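May I ask for an example protein's residues together with how it folds?

___
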Amino acid sequence: MATNIKVLLFEDTVETRAEVLKALRKHLKRYGSVIPFESSRLTETDTGKERMYEARLKDILTRAPYDGGTLIVVDQNLAKSDDFKGLSVSAVAAVSKTLAIPICEYARLPHADDYEWRRRWEEGHIVLDFTDLDELARLAAVAARGFAEIAARLRRVMRDGDNNSLATILAAVLGKKGYSGKIALYGVGEKRLSDIPARTQQAEQEKQRMMTTFLGYWLWSSLLRYPGLLVNEVAAASYLNIETADFRKPRVQEVFKKALYRGPFADFKRPQWWRGTLDDIVSHENCANGLELVRKKVGMRISRSKCSVDPSKPAGYYCIISHKPVGLENSKGGLSWFPRGADLTRISDPMLEEYGPWFGA
């Protein structure tokens, strides 16, 4: 596991900061530290305090104890910050981009289900959804470990001069060099793909930080979010034609254990599987689908996956809004904001009718 992780916490409410700080330290264990941003303890000259917030933050985050941060975790509302009245997450995000430090944003309000929609529009950082502050800290720890792991793997990968594209580099980081073509499909329409190559003349250390940050955002916000190359629990069950509740059973999970994703950002509470390896497991046993394989292997009653819109129809796909299995006939895929490689990602007809005007479908 990656070590020397440093998380920088921006939370302007004292009580909440203490709770998140304690939870973060618990989830990071001995592998990292958490440094809270406490403006009242900063040493700045009067002239320094007159500068723009971005300039002040940039200076502060390059000095001890904040220098060398692995991840910034920031509350969406920082209006109560001492000596930084009216500080916004935008200012922190701007500095994180300049310094190439990954950033995770969170908010207690509005409701998490509503706030989740912002992810589609956010560029350059991660938005965490959570049910309580302990879960927030757990997810932030998953993110911090993931970025640290990418940084460690990237140093090894970059020694190989054959890595001449971002998709090839990410494939190597994930230990799946044969998947570079499929990973490249997740880059179609991603403006940020052009950011890194244009800066290859910069100092090697800075370049490594920028690459780590970019690849982490790409992996978290695209490959791991939109089922296609990788599939979450519901999407995997739907694809294999297994009822989600049955797919969660330990004996069923054991059948597909080899396909479990174990790379950066792997989360035991939100597992993912390599779709290609799922296919290999099924085909190796000469079965038509996962349902047939499990019934053959497990010897217990296993139900098929049903479309959440019309249970009389098979599923096979995943609704990105409802997070439920959905069938081809009762959903729409290929929306402009879906990565091209996310061919299992769709929106069910009821969700499309409700939200379509909002996102221009």
About this structure: Residues 133-157 form the longest helix (25 residues). The mean pLDDT is 88. The chain is about 40% helix and 10% strand.
